[in-house]
Amino acid sequence: MNPINHVAIIMDGNGRWGLKYKKSRNAGHKAGLNTVEKIIRETIKNKIKYLTLYAFSTENWKRPKKEINFLFSLLENFLVNKIDDLHKKNIRLKIIGLKRFTKKLNNLLIESEKKTSRNKRLQINLALNYGSKYELINAFKSLQKNNKQISEKNICKYLLTKNIPDPDILIRTGNTKRLSNFLLWQLAYSEIFFEKKLWPDFNEKDYNKIINKFKKIKRNYGNI
Ligand code: IPE
Ligand code: IPE
Ligand code: MG
Q: What is the value of pTM for the model shown?
């Protein structure tokens, strides 16, 4: 049985769900937040140490301002209302991505990271204004600047996921089979599960099905 240290999720399909059931993409984003809470609980139950959630990509700035503002207001509310609860549950929150938001949100993110920085039960990496190509370019530039050799080990040290094991499992909901600039380096040997359901419809049962399937996979890493 394969151990699971790290699950990464591309939470896709909120907009389509919202349009289908509530005639509003934003309603889908709101509903998606309930799934986030369910999956956090289930990740803890499964004793998984790292959960990385793709919440906003560097490309998502192309979306209408109204939708972007709504997404960040949802996040702000979530942090204000839930960070104490996460802290009590011994959960660490880490942001991977560039904190280039409003001053208020930037500060909230920094405070939340600081408050939970010593928590050990589960680390949630929130990929926010995250892009894998940007992350890699940045790592190469830093290596060059510091006169370091370009090696696998050194590249890992300059990624935003430094000190975090690579994902064992990648899940993308929303019936789309692409990576959308997510963890291109770190997913080299992850087991990938594309899920037809839209993110707000994804539930504990779907998640556990994937986990159980993963446990039985023979991971070769090039070997036989
Ligand atoms: C993913 O859902 C969440 C974010 C990108 C913030 P989408 O908003 O991409 O939903 P669809 O793919 O349009 O349905
Ligand atoms: C990927 O979803 C980003 C997040 C889930 C945050 P998108 O909906 O932005 O991906 P594309 O544009 O369809 O590839
Ligand atoms: Mg999408």
A: 0.98
